[in-house]
Design goal:
- The structure is a single chain.
- The chain is an alpha+beta fold.
- The protein folds into two domains: 237 residues, FAD/NAD(P)-binding domain (3-Layer(bba) Sandwich), CATH 3.50.50.60; 85 residues.
- Helices cover 33% and strands 28% of the residues.
- The strands form four sheets. Strands 1, 2, 8, 9, 10, 11, 19 and 20 form an eight-stranded mixed beta sheet that branches. A seven-stranded mixed beta sheet has the order 6-5-14-15-16-13-17.
- A hairpin with a 2-residue loop joins strand 9 and strand 10.
């Protein structure tokens, strides 16, 4: 077994893990990030980069480079509710530096972050390395065990950060309890070719029993078909012909190419979970991102909350890690800093789930826009407030750590 030691070991190479690794390494902390897959490509990864994350890229001096990567900007979140069209959030009504959401494949975003982090000699990313267990001594977490393509690995660390997602193995092994908040839906994720004659904006459509999100990727559409939880097998039993007919009804411009959906393997199921850990930490151990709180896909804020967790963790823990003296009080400060904004956003998501999605997915016979939607259309300035809540959130983080290493261009 290969053995090594670092100040901080991060399990999980998603947005929270890679961003935390980047910022800690930038501050001079010796850090290893373990990512169980050989690359960042997945069938489903969220791809919304909100203004809060874009602002952090600006603070790192990387915004222009990031926006050179292929992406689409969406300045307004629009919807069709039955026969009613409207706007939920309008970023042009804000004073943000980047008044839009950038849609970018998450594998491109993670590759960008990891390449920037690799500039720092204290950063190591191990791909194909899966954290499989925690090392505990006298009630203190002191490291992790992992499997790698070349054999088992043991990493001793002053701090282990679990950023390994909503089904976090590290959180389970640490024995941290989770409150399940529930979700009425799952999501079917698939892509289709795009034609110049198609609509030119990302949009959501809600009809009785179904909700469809269409993300404009310039040369193709990324669709998220929101279905009642646990109904995918019943949908499959009705056959692809029925599924294609429903898609054509929701997105009529797909009629001439819907036959391309000729195999269920082209349609991936995302099982939605909404939960939060009661405590995010133990001595020597901290959860961030989805490992601490799995968010609903409503408003696509999960990535950005995970990144905010990483920034807060870096701001609070870089100094103690450099001094070799991280205490549980330090870890508790991270949870205290991030728990309130997480709870506010989850409360908003649960309200939308309960008051909008549950009746819709239940096939309510009369489909009318809820009061909040009507209010946003009656008073357009509220669309700017909604955009700020979605795009920036509550208590946004800023990078407070100074770079230990010379910044490179």
């Amino acid at each position: 077994m290969e053995k090594t030691s670092v100040r901080c070991c991060i399990a999980g190479g998603g947005p929270a893990g890679v961003m935390a690794g980047l910022l800690l390494a930038r501050a001079g902390v010796d850090v290893v990030v373990l990512e169980k897959h050989a690359d960042f490509f997945r069938d489903f990864r969220g791809d919304t980069i909100h203004p809060s994350t874009l602002e952090l890229m600006y603070e790192l001096g990387s915004l222009d480079d990031l926006l050179h990567l292929p992406h689409q900007k969406t300045a307004r979140l629009r919807f069709q509710f039955g026969d009613t069209f409207g706007t939920i959030a309008d970023f042009t009504r804000t004073k943000l530096r980047t008044p839009y959401i950038a849609f970018m494949p998450q594998w491109d975003f993670l590759t960008f972050l990891s390449k920037r982090a690799a500039r720092y000699p204290t950063f190591t990313l191990k791909m194909g390395a899966e954290a499989t267990g925690l090392i505990e001594e006298n009630g203190l977490i002191v490291g992790v065990t992992a499997t790698t393509p070349i054999g088992p690995l043991e990493i001793r660390a002053d701090l282990v950060i679990a950023a390994d997602g909503r089904t976090s193995l590290m959180r389970q092994q640490a024995g941290l309890a989770v409150d399940e908040l529930g979700a009425p839906m799952d999501v079917l994720w698939f892509s289709m070719p795009r034609k110049p004659s198609d609509p030119d904006e990302t949009m959501g459509r809600i009809d009785a029993g179904r909700m469809l999100i269409a993300i404009d990727r310039q040369d193709y559409w990324q669709f998220g078909d929101v279905i009642p939880k646990g109904t995918f097998e019943a949908i499959k039993a009705r056959g692809l012909h029925d599924f294609r007919a429903t898609l054509t009804q929701m997105a009529p411009y797909m009629a001439d190419r819907v036959a391309l959906l000729d195999d269920w393997d082209k349609i991936k199921l995302l099982t939605v979970q909404v939960n939060r850990a009661k405590s995010w930490h133990r001595p020597g151990f901290l959860c961030i991102g989805d490992a601490a709180h799995a968010m609903s896909p409503v408003a696509g804020v999960g990535i950005n909350l995970a990144v905010q967790d990483a920034v807060a963790a870096s701001n609070i823990l870089a100094g103690p890690l450099l001094a070799g003296s991280v205490t549980e009080d330090d870890l508790a400060r991270v949870q205290k800093r991030r728990e309130f904004p997480m709870r506010v956003i989850q409360a908003m998501q649960l309200m939308i789930q309960n008051r909008v999605l549950t009746p819709v997915l239940g096939g309510a016979p009369t489909l009318k826009p809820p009061f909040i939607i009507k209010l946003l259309q009656a008073f357009p300035f509220l669309q700017g407030l909604a955009a700020r809540l979605v795009g920036v959130g509550v208590r946004p983080e800023h990078i407070r750590t100074a770079p230990h290493w010379p910044e490179k261009g």
